DNA sequence: GCCGTTTTCGGCCCGACTGTTTTCAGTCG
């Protein structure tokens, strides 16, 4: 898969071109836009080329004849001549240097020309000799800022899980509201769009006491230091290792600001182009016709004035949602309240932390009317997997539990391990007795694609599987997906009527948003499950819902939006 | 270097903050 490699090279070319006198800023932007396209592609770019040639590449947004040639050059030779030439001209580690907060390509090249700084190590040496502060255009403050920037990079891990970031953003918003200094505070940015990882937090506040709000904000206990502080925008570094922006907004600008700061950047660029086409100007302060502000009470009204339907934040990624909005075909996305049950949970009997009764209580408190308890099977020793006898005894306890319940039911199930050879880790007889059979891969993850695809398909072809859990096995920021041909997987699921799981665990979110979009083209249904191992994990459902919405999913494609009766009919539970 | 319900040429999103400057370039989102 060359996508990330090529995207990185294009970004580096853009950075190097931005300091090159022969290049225009628009050429720079062209490389950046192409890098973004390639970096967020769902399919390996070499496959796109193999299937459709240069023409297929040129169909990608921001990629024309020249850039298509450069991509082909990389696929064929592993090199891009233009990049090699630029590197010769400017032999510096531009990627590392510009990753320092406050350091762009121009500063990096000045440091190279004046001090011979090629990488972060050189930069550290220059700082220790206090050479930077003596350069024209730089000063004492620049030097210490760069030093701080290097420190921040070395201690930060880059992006962070939505499941870690969202609660902190919510806490900051709550504290701002409690301060009495703001009339409203909301989360914007990628956190509002429910992206699976978040690079920084964006918060908007409504207030006419700007200075006081900023003072309050910079003194919050989550804050470690201040990066920039102004009356309308302040940036701080949080103790958890990410930055957080606070913008204080005037009431008449609030809707426009929320739209603007929610992003994505790519979505906004397209929306602003449409505004211009319609004789408007859209920025963070409002929608303008000439110099006159057009009164809008909500984000929805902004989209409406531009001839579009309201676009939910989770869809704002410039993946075709703007066209849909123009045609008024935005689907009614699934919501948290649509879920009636959870079909993937664990108890103490395998590797969960709580009892059957405790899990049921917690699910009820979340407004659910059924759960399936799906403990691990015997081969998964590390998770205390259960054997046939263990399940039989446990199922008797579930029967007893259900006798006492009238408006809630626990379904009998298992998360059956798919063994290395594709066979299932429990007897056929027991599996057939179960209400909900989840199959999953937990071991031998490094098979090649063909082998892994066959292994999974063999399991699905038994006809015994209801749901395929966390279908790619990835752990976000930790482990890549195992290699599997997604198209054949979805075809096999369609053939065998197997439901694809959207696992809501914050470090799984598997299927991902892009895989959901891909899977939606097949006649398959989905289940949004928590994989809860303790009562507090039911909280994770909102991340699964967020991911499903990012995959444009509607309620009718998700089986655990069905009430118990309909679900039992669908899964043929007697 | 890309792109077209104004265009195959001439546009390309736009404003805040900072540091080092005396009016602005660089960086960021």
Describe the structure.
By secondary structure, the protein is an alpha/beta fold. The protein contains 24 helices and 17 strands. The protein has a 7-stranded parallel sheet. Strands 2-4-7-6-5 form a 5-stranded mixed sheet, with helices on both faces. The two termini are 46 Å apart. It binds one DNA strand of 29 nucleotides through residues 23-31, 33-34, 61-67, 98, 101-107, 136-139, 141-142, 145, 189, 200, 202, 228-230, 232-235, 245, 247, 261, 263, 265, 268-269, 272-273, 275-277, 281-285.
Would you spell out the secondary-structure blueprint of this structure?
Layout: H1 3-17, H2 25-39, H3 45-59, H4 65-77, H5 81-89, H6 94-98, H7 105-115, H8 120-128, H9 140-155, E1 160-161, H10 162-178, E2 184-188, H11 189-192, E3 197-198, E4 200-206, H12 210-218, E5 223-229, E6 233-238, E7 243-249, H13 254-262, H14 265-277, E8 281-283, E9 286-289, E10 292-294, H15 299-305, H16 321-326, E11 341-345, H17 356-365, E12 370-376, H18 388-403, E13 409-417, H19 428-433, E14 436-440, H20 449-460, E15 467-468, H21 486-496, E16 499-503, H22 513-519, E17 526-529, H23 541-550, H24 564-570
Parallel strand pairs: 4-7, 11-12, 12-13, 13-14, 14-15, 15-16, 16-17
Antiparallel strand pairs: 1-3, 2-4, 5-6, 6-7, 8-9, 9-10
Helix pairs in contact: 1-2, 1-5, 3-4, 20-21, 22-23
The structure holds one DNA strand of 29 nucleotides.
């Amino acid at each position: 898969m060359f996508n990330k490699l090529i995207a990185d090279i294009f970004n580096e070319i853009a950075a190097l071109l931005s300091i090159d006198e022969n290049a225009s800023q628009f050429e720079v932007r062209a490389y950046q836009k192409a890098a973004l396209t390639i970096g967020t592609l769902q399919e390996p770019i070499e496959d796109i080329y193999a299937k459709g040639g240069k023409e297929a590449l040129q169909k990608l947004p921001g990629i024309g004849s020249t850039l298509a040639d450069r991509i082909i050059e990389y696929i064929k030779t592993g090199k891009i001549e233009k990049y090699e030439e630029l590197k010769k001209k400017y032999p510096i580690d531009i990627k590392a240097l510009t990753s320092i907060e406050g350091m762009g390509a121009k500063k990096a090249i000045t440091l190279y020309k004046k001090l011979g700084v090629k990488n972060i190590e050189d930069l550290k040496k220059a700082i220790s000799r206090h050479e930077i502060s003596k350069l024209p255009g730089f000063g004492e403050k620049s030097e210490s800022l760069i030093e701080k920037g290097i420190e921040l990079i070395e201690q930060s891990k880059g992006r962070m899980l939505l499941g870690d970031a969202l609660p902190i953003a919510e806490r900051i918003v709550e504290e701002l509201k409690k301060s009495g200094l703001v009339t409203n505070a909301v989360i914007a940015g990628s956190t509002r769009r429910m992206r699976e990882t978040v690079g920084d937090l964006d918060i908007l506040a409504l207030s006419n006491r700007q200075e006081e709000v900023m003072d309050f904000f910079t003194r919050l206990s989550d804050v470690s230091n201040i990066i920039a502080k102004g009356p309308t925008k302040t940036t701080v570094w949080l103790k958890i290792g990410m930055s957080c922006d606070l913008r204080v907004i005037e009431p008449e600008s609030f809707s426009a600001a929320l739209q603007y700061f929610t992003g994505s950047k790519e979505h906004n660029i397209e929306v602003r182009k449409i505004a211009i086409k319609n004789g408007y100007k859209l920025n963070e302060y409002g929608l303008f016709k000439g110099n006159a502000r057009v009164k809008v009470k909500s984000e929805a009204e902004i989209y409406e004035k531009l001839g579009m339907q309201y676009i939910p934040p989770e869809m704002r990624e410039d993946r075709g949602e703007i066209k849909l909005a123009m045609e008024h075909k935005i689907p009614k996305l699934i919501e948290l309240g649509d879920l009636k049950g959870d079909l993937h949970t664990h108890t103490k009997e395998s590797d969960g932390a709580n009892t059957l009764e405790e899990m049921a209580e917690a699910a009820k408190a979340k407004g659910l009317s059924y759960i399936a308890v799906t403990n691990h099977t015997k081969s998964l020793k590390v998770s205390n997997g259960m054997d046939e006898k263990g399940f039989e005894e446990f199922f008797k306890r579930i029967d007893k539990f259900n006798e006492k319940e009238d408006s809630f039911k626990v379904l009998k199930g298992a998360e059956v391990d798919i063994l290395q050879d594709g066979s299932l880790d429990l007897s056929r007889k027991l599996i057939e007795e179960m209400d909900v059979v989840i199959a999953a891969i937990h071991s031998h993850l490094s098979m090649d694609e063909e082998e892994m695809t066959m292994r999974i398909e063999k399991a699905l072809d038994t006809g015994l599987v209801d749901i395929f859990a966390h279908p790619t096995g990835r752990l976000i920021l930790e482990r890549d997906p195992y290699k599997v041909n997604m198209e054949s997987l979805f075809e096999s699921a369609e053939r065998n009527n197997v439901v694809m799981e959207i696992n809501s665990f914050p470090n799984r979110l598997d299927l991902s948003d892009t895989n959901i979009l891909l899977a939606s083209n097949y006649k398959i249904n989905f289940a949004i499950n928590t994989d809860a191992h303790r009562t507090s994990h039911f909280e994770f459902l909102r991340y699964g819902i967020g991911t499903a919405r990012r995959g444009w999913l509607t309620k009718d494609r998700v089986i655990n939006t069905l009430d118990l009766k309909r679900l039992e009919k669908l899964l043929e539970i007697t």
